Amino acid sequence: MTEKASLKKLSFGPRRGYYAQIGPNNKFYKAPAKTLKMFDDYDLIYRTLCGILYNYVPKSGHPGGSISSGKIVEGLLFHTMNYRISDPDCLEADILSYAAGHKAMGLYAMWALRNECARVADPSMLPKEEKKQLRLEDLLGFRRNPTQETPLFKKYRSKPLDGHPTPTTPFVRLSTGASGVGVTTSFGLGFGALDTFGKKSPFVHVLEGEGGMTPGRVSEALATAGSAQFYNIMLHVDWNQASIDSEKVCRDGKTPGDYVQWNPAEMCYLHDWNVILVKDGKDMGQVLEAQEFAMKNRNSQPTAIVYRTVKGWQYGITGAKSHGAGHDFCSPEYYETLRPFEERFGVKFGPFACADKSAASVESAFFDALMTVRKVLEDNRAIAEFFGKALASSEKRLTRMARRKRPDAPNLGAIYGNDIDPEKIPAECSYKPGDSETLRGALGKSLNYLNKKSGGAIVAAAADLLGSTSILTAGKGLGEGFFNAISNPKSRILLTGGICEDNMGGIMAGMSTYGQHLGAGSSYAAFIAALQHITCRLHGIGQQARSGYDGKPYNPFILVCAHAGLKTGEDGPTHADPQALQLLQENFPEKIMITLTPWDPQELYPLLVAALKKRPAVIAPFVTRPNEKVFDRAKLGLAPATASIKGLYALRKADPSKKPYHGTVVLQESGVTNTFIAEVLPKIDGAGLNMNIFYVASAELFNLLPESERRSIYPEKLAMEAMAITGFTMPPMHRWIMSEAGRDHSVNAFSKGHYLGSGQAHKVLEEAGLHGAGQWEAVSRYAAFMAAKG
Q1: CA triplet 516, 521, 525: central angle to 5 degrees?
Q2: Around 583, how many Cα atoms within 13 Å sit in the side-chain half-sphere?
Q3: What is the DSSP secondary-structure string of 711-727?
Q4: Helix/strand/coil (H, E, C) string of 641-683?
Q5: CA–CA separation, 439 and 673 (whole Å)
Q6: Coil, helix or strand at residue 475
Q7: What's residue 4's pLDDT?
Q8: 235 and 303 Cβ atoms separated by less than 8 Å
Q9: Whole-angstrom distance, CA of residue 500 vs CA of residue 741
Q10: According to the model, what pLDDT value does residue 1 have?
Q11: What is the model's pTM?
Q12: Is the alpha carbon torsion for 641, 646, 647, 652 positive or negative?
């Protein structure tokens, strides 16, 4: 047992952030009684609308958190934020990002109700284009597929509203809702705004719950924002103590939590945030006071406002049971939730009377309920006009602020301009035969060249591997040291919490989404391909949705799969992972992901630029650690490095007029290809083998070529005969190697049926049978097989 004399109380060290509490006394700001009455009416309508949405999906959505966060969002939209309802895409406007994507029901209800207030009060303030509004009629599309065919959905051209937010909805910048990704990407938006506008940057308000703060990447993101001083971020925490499984998520006073032993205020304060605890988040006066206090007490740190709330407040189901569930369809309990609205406004929702419960009948009743809400706002114009005036005031405040990009803000467009050409390799990114260069080094130099051309539009990060993966070079000459919004804002190197691939991916994706930067994060391929997979998917979903909304090309971020493959052999099978490519290559919809697998440092610049010009959502270059010899491609009769931009290209072609014919070899991965060129190619020449030799530099770049060009480069008959040599796994080669015989003759990292051991690169290749002798044995056996076929 520990002696009492040795027990000490551990307290936080010095903080740059402050801690404050807001209670019922209204010491800092007291909202007028009329204002509070208007907000009470609005929140009643909002809660009722949430209940209607859940009922008529039917029985789908998350009413609890949508309802408990309502007053937080109402305060932001109608009191605190500066934005234009007329322009959802305004770059200089404040942003509200629902990191808590499961509150999408609330987002849609709030957006539609805001739109309706503007329509009733002054329709001229609304966007002219219908797609930039979220109307009450659009709520017919809640959790509906674009193929929905019910009559009113078609009649009113309702938007299909995804179950978690996506940027097909106006004012939504990101796809969120998956395992903490919304926080990290929202903080990336914050960086994008901060670095673009400087001291007058827009605020990014991020809505999350305490359950959504439990993923590790959220702690990593809090550390990044606190350490780098992202002072334009405000995190709004709906602390209701209920998740899907637990009613005691966090420690609360002396009561231990089921999941974690911190509360949201402690977690944010630990990471050096300003923290404002609102004792009663159901009290609109306290909510407004907290937001006023935060805006009037800004300093160099980001701010978290933590609101104590009740999940499902006034809904009839509270706590964990209200997270993803609600009342039965048109049940007495559902109609009881409508009663306060009916009594306040003197209306009656008609009961659902259709016996068939067909989709069309349910939709008709849903529409009638929405029109009842519309009539209430039309009959009670004072409510709509109060909030319409608030929207007009928000727009006026934004205009008065005159936010402008800082004079030396990055120019990302320069990277996509005609001056950057994948077939014109600049001297800074060129290497002479006989030179020695790493692929990671060549990538760093390519990023640095583009960064200087764009005035610092590329921001680089790594999982504590900046120098090791050479991505540190990307920021060379653009501001030394690490980025800090206060002390070192010119640096293009951002620390993202340490060994934190999860958070790094979200920050890079979020800043790229803002549209003024290109985020590039690096780590071992073994880790980053897996750990950033969710972020890649959500970024892809978001970019696809955004492009569908505004017609603009995607904003990519770069996922650097460094120290890739077997040439990282000294680190052993835990790090030298051949499986990473299989997680990414051709594993996403078209134009979402482009993987790059160069073998020659000369290929880095053309491949990277070719990929950027295609504007995918994610670019994933696989680069190795050791030095590579730069071969004299012309002397060896190999295609030039710029041929790599086709994705698949012939290093050499067989002579069709010459017999015998020895088939087709397809190579992928730097280690095996350098070995092939150095040790196997001379033997092929010595033996007089008549072979096609292809290299896969990017499966996705090849896929984006016109079909006729693809067939010309690699006819199907070649795929039906070819064998593969790859330092990755075999599945990524299956589209090139389509016959059983070809696959039987192929060699890959797992050909021996086990994970490989540690050691120098050449010894690991030898264990896999991918060393020079092993490759030659496989090629000669295959050549003999092809010659025998005639």
Answers
A1: 145
A2: 20
A3: HHHS-HHHHTT-EEEES
A4: HHHHHHCEEEEECCCCCCCCCCCEEEEECHHHHHHHHHHHHHH
A5: 13
A6: helix
A7: 61
A8: yes
A9: 43
A10: 45
A11: 0.97
A12: negative
Query: Which stretches in the chain have pLDDT values below 50?
Result: 1
C-alpha to C-alpha distance for 94 and 393, rounded to whole angstroms: 14
Those residues whose C-beta lies under 8 Å from the C-beta of residue 608, and which sit 6 or more positions away, are 443, 446, 447, 450, 596, 619, 621
Phi, psi for residue 764 in degrees, rounded to 5: -70, -40
Q: Could you give the CA distance from residue 437 to residue 604 in angstroms, rounded to a whole number?
A: 11
Gap between the Cα atoms of 476 and 448, Å rounded: 7
Task: Let me know if 161 is exposed, middle or buried by CB neighbors in 10 A (0-12, 13-18, 19+).
Answer: buried
User: Are 274 and 291 spatial neighbours (Cβ–Cβ below 8 Å)?
Assistant: no
- C-alpha closest to that of 652 among 681, 683, 687: 681
Distance CA 737, CA 728 (A): 14
DSSP 173-228: -S---STTHHHHHHHHHHHHHHHHHGGGPPPEEEEEESGGG-SHHHHHHHHHHHHH
**CB 733: neighbour CB atoms within 10 A?**
27
Closest CA to 684 of 670, 709, 667, 668: 667
User: What is the per-residue pLDDT across 170-214, written as a single tens digit (0 to 9) for each?
Assistant: 999 999 999 999 999 999 999 999 999 999 999 999 999 999 999
Is the CB of residue 165 less than 8 Å from the CB of residue 109? no
- Give the Cα separation of 659 and 307 in Å (integer): 79
Burial of 655 (0-12, 13-18, 19+ CB in 10 A): exposed
Residue 11 CB partners (closer than 8 Å, separation 6+):
none
**CB distance 36 to 297 below 8 Å:** no
Nearest alpha carbon to residue 18 among 306, 304, 237: 304
Cis check: omega of the bond before 422, within 30 degrees of 0: no
The residue assigned the tokens 């770059």 is: 91
Name residue 252's beta-bridge partners: 255
Beta strand pairing call for 627-629 and 518-524: unpaired
The pLDDT value given to residue 602: 97
What is the spatial distance between Cα 536 and Cα 766, in angstroms, rounded to a whole number? 34
User: How many residues are there in the chain?
Assistant: 790
Residue 754 CB coordination number (10 Å): 10
Q: Which two tokens stand for residue 463?
A: 């999982």
Cβ burial of 405 (10 Å; 0-12, 13-18, 19+) is middle
CB 215 within 8 A of CB 179: yes
For residue 361, the tally of other CB atoms under 10 A from its CB is 15
pLDDT at 3: 57
Phi, psi angle pair for 438, to nearest 5°: -90, 150
- Reduced to 3 states (helix: H, G, I; strand: E, B; else coil), residue 766 is helix
In the block, which residue shows the tokens 């299989």? 582
Whole-angstrom distance, CA of residue 496 vs CA of residue 506: 10
Q: Give the pair of three-digit tokens for residue 387.
A: 């909030």
Q: How far apart are CA 501 and CA 487, in angstroms?
A: 25
Tell me the C-alpha distance between 452 and 420, whole Å: 12
Q: Which of 475, 509, 470 is nearest to 494 (CA)?
A: 475
**Alpha carbons 139 and 302: distance in angstroms, whole number:** 34
Nearest alpha carbon to residue 598 among 627, 623, 564: 623
- Single-letter residue type at 209: G
Side-chain half-sphere exposure of 557, counting CA atoms within 13 A: 36
Instruction: Mention every residue, 6+ apart, whose C-beta is less than 8 A from residue 524.
Output: 463, 465, 561, 562, 563, 564, 568, 575, 577
| 8 A C-beta contact, residue 397 and residue 410 | no
Helices first, then strands: H and E counts in the chain: 27, 17
Question: Both tokens of residue 194?
Answer: 């901060």
- b/e per residue, 764-777, with b = 16+ CB within 10 A? bbbbbbbbbebbbe
Give per-residue pLDDT as tens, 501-524: 999 999 999 999 999 999 999 999
DSSP string, 520-555: EEEEEHHHHHHHTHHHHHHHHHHHHHHHHHH-PPP-
Q: Which two tokens stand for residue 541?
A: 């979903």
Q: Contact at 8 Å (CB) between 605 and 623?
A: no
